[in-house]
Automatic annotation (TrEMBL):
PANTHER family: ISOCHORISMATE SYNTHASE ENTC
Protein family: Belongs to the isochorismate synthase family.
Protein name: isochorismate synthase
NCBIfam families per record: isochor_syn
Amino acid sequence: MSNSPVSTLTDLHLPALTARSRPCDEIDDLLPYADPRHPLVFLRRGDGIVGVGEALRLEFHGPRRISDAADAWRRVVATATIDDQVRRAGSGLIAFGSFAFADHSAESSVLVVPRMLFGRREGVCWVTEVSGGGGYASSRPRPIGSAGAVRLSAGTPSPEGFVAAVGEAVDRIRSGELSKVVLARSLTGRLPDTADRRAVLASLATAYPDTWTHAVDGLFGSSPETLVSVHNRTVTARVLAGSTARGEDAAADRARATALATSSKDLGEHGYALRSVLGALRPFSTGVAASEQPFTLKLPNLWHLASDVEGTLAGSATVLDLVAALHPTAAVAGSPREVALRTIADLERHDRGRYAGPVGWVDEEGDGDWAIALRGAQLSDDGMVTAFAGAGIVAESVPERELAETSLKFRPVLDALA
Ligand SMILES: C=C(O[C@@H]1C=C(C(=O)O)C=C[C@H]1O)C(=O)O
């Protein structure tokens, strides 16, 4: 918000970076390599990348924050020297990134190139060192300490305020103003000064192994939703929308999943999200398609309706260009997009910060993995924790049920901080 997009880019001082990636001995657990106070992490099923230190940090604001970052990254790559003897997804020159949800958010959006990076994929481990920028990084693993217990209390809107906002949204949807809007509420608390922030990530990664456990510039969580991945010109996304609680026993659980898979309310809600992703990806890729019917995705706390999307990248777009085109999808904003965004600003009355924004990494080829920042929280340097959870509202939504859905979506972060 404070910088105009043009001056942000032209004023950027971009050093010529050198990145060297080398295979290394097996690393069982990447998290001990992360910085206890400033972890930079993107992991799933134990594979992924952990960065240490900051060789380069770029900040972006305003409506062009993602396309500015895409352009800045092209400039960083153009002057970089890269010696990559690993050639896996996540080796070479990497920037981690996290973007604010809203165009006029007070929260900054960032790209961070770590000074050192530890990676692991399919049994291959590596270390990347970056020189030419700033920063210092410890290359030693350090035992993970404790995070200390944190109690989160109601933030904005309050649970009652959320129920009222959903009621108002349903009225607006029934009057034809829009078809779907995703409304969220927050919880807040404070992490002790001595907390080892990696303990929170370790707990999330253990409890939610199939999600993207991430930490970038204080934003952390375990997101089940892939905004977009690009690897060797294959474009994939996992769209989630439509949710229900897990059942008490196996039979009730199956019944829940079946009810979700056949619910016209949830299928409708899902359809908006899927169409928004297909529409945003088509100009950049060929053969973009999803399976005909969504499937039910089982998480420890919830069932979701899910669709996997795949296509082939055409042209020279990078994953950041796709992120710029996709964000915000109807899974986290609504439909039509502009009306939904105005409705969110009007009814939530709270800056989402980076919640529901893109979080992930990009490499020198423009490949990378980007999740939607869900099921997590923003942690400030002074320990303030702000967690968010939301739910897609359509004409058939019942406000109290949507409140219950947000409570289930807070579970990962509440349990990890308990
Ligand atoms: C908005 C959130 O989740 C999104 C909304 C969903 C829904 O309304 O069913 C499901 C998955 C996500 O796309 C959240 O977790 O905060």
